[in-house]
Amino acid sequence: MNEHNLTSLVNEMTLDEKIAQLTQLATPFFKGASDGGQITGPMADMGITDDMIENTGSVLGASGAKEVKNIQRKHIEDNRLGIPLLVMSDIVHGYKTIFPVPLAIGCSWDMELAEKSAQIAAKEASASGVHVTFAPMVDLVRDPRWGRVMESTGEDPYLNSQFARAFVRGFQGNDLTNETDRVAACVKHFAAYGAPEGGRDYNTVDMSERELRENYLPAYEAALDEGCEMVMTAFNTVFGIPATGNKKLMRSILREEMGFDGVLISDWGAVKEMIPHGVAEDEKEAALKALTAGVDIEMMTSTYVKYLKTLIDEQAVDVSLIDEAVLRILTLKEKLGLFENPYRGADEELEKEVVMSASHREAARELAAKSAVLLKNEGVLPLKKEQKIALIGPFAENGDILGPWSWLGSKEDAVTVKEGFLQKIDPSQLTVAKGSDTEAITEEQIQEALEAAKDADVIVLALGEDSEMSGEAGCRADIKLLGAQLELIQRIKELGKQTVSVLFNGRPLDLHGVWDETDAVLEAWYPGTEGGAAVADILYGDQNPSGRLTMSFPYSSGQIPVYYNHFNTGRPKGAPDAQERYVSQYLDIPNSPLFPFGFGLSYTEFTYSSMTISSGKMTCDDSLEISVTVTNTGRVAGEEVVQLYVRDVSGEVVRPLKELKGFEKISLQPGESKEVTFTLTEEKLRYHHSDLSFTSDPGTFIAYIGGNSKEVMEKSFTLEK
User: Fold this and answer.
1) What is the torsional sign of CA 311, 316, 321, 323?
2) Is 318 tagged catalytic?
3) Could you tell me the CA-to-CA distances from 692 to 208, 520, 603, 646, 660 in Å, in that order?
4) Of 110, 143, 267, 537, catalytic
5) SS3 letters for 650-701?
6) Each residue of 144-199: pLDDT tens digit?
7) Which of 101, 442, 447, 656 has a C-alpha 20 to 30 A away from that of 108?
8) Closest CA to 538 of 516, 521, 517, 551
């Protein structure tokens, strides 16, 4: 069906049928679903009729090849024109085979593995009948109190943009029509959802347009440039107007400037939420503002089906706005091949074959190992196979390591830390005790832990946050490890044995009471289905840790937001530890984070030397080659992430002290050296000026190269125009 035929189809539709296409309903509304017709609670109050259901355009949360085909079959039978449904779901970091949470994937700095994780998720999801995933989430994040930082890849716009591209490639492939093992991607949340005041979900976002364009829009643009088919609106305000009703944001910036002509969908209930936001008096006005702003699909509220027809009758809305939205939705259905094959990739036999296959689990294990970040190691790691190990902590035998947005992932399928250890050593070498719950501890648990540890050579503490403590609405004002676990650490420390902390969490934590009280700290994040196996691989040295932080770990919650690419002040602090008066500093804590962006340890050592720059001058027509020699000076092979940063010393507006402009992940054998070269062009020196023009300034720049944002070598150069 070509565009002409789609336009004809739109013309054939009644106004009610068109408006219903703009509505997304959850699975229980549909007759073919196993729980079809079981509408309770808020869903029962939506006022949805059978006619609306029969004409609606998409279903939320359906999965399983048999179920999806039943829903689709019944829907096409009931729909007058036989228009198929779009099936959409939250496939964020895996369908059934769960990969590490996106923040962890970011710490891999590995675009190939990130793309592969999305490709595998798409393969499992499409075989199970899903057409569209609500991913990737590319919001830039700087406040770890916000629970959804786990769904982003970090605090840097350049790196987030690279991951956005990788995820879109993985989900969508090159040809959605013929590659039925792929799904359409939906980039979210447009825009700036990652900057809520106080780190509190759904809260106000207030920033300048220059800041929005400079740091928050690039990753969305990268996803769209890669061909992402859908965009989801954010819950928050932008320029004082909720994103879902923000005409400037959606029509002017997204549609006109970025050239996006795909489908724009609201987040769950976001259209109706304009009422409590205070920009719509009632549902009718909310519908008017959302459609006028360009929202094509209203997710799980019913203002469109209730009021758009009235708004047209009152001439408040032109029917052409509805027609263009319907055409975009039908175009996506056509691109997915649904008119010719409404069941698309759904296949019960293929589903059994690919979902949770051995190769998929192996890929999850590899990425989990590559995503973990070694934060401290005082000679205790890697463990030796002959050592006796006491494994203690609430996550020792806990399958709750998948993290939020793992949807169909099963804790029962997850490889626990204990199971991972038993893949490496004999059961006689391992004692296990819970030690505490995540939030509570008893003397009985402590005594059990002390008994388990008494004959151990090394104690491994498996600590962290329950998955419900992160993710959407999982915001925390105090981001220390919970007190029960800190008490457990103190009691274990009294034994005087070497102790390793392994952390399972979805945000950077204030690690006081952990990093300063144990001999080694491994940040495992929520590592997914194969998490326990990956942790054991690292702890025993079968994998050399290569993860590097993509979000700074604060020294204290009082610093937040703390991020590497911040501005200088007119009164910068001098020496890091100096306590001077009348400079920009805290009197009681350092300015710097505990662990900076880009940081991560290895079981080997990397030495940087011989940094060179091809010229001290650059023009707009040429480029600079910036090189450094990296040597593995340790005893084992390892991977290093070589990072290039640049500082614009004097700009038209203030510029960050460092900005990531390139990176390369290299593998070196003991004693091996490699020269890493970056090409820097004038284009990479551009930024948004006070008039929002995007250009560079002549003057002095500093290039930095190192293994993290803090420990770097530097060379200066000038840009001449």
Assistant:
1) positive
2) no
3) 11, 46, 46, 21, 21
4) 267
5) CCCCCCECCEEEEEEEEEECCCCEEEEEEEEEHHHHCEECCCCCEECCCEEE
6) 999 999 999 999 999 999 999 999 999 999 999 999 999 999 999 999 999 999 99
7) 656
8) 521
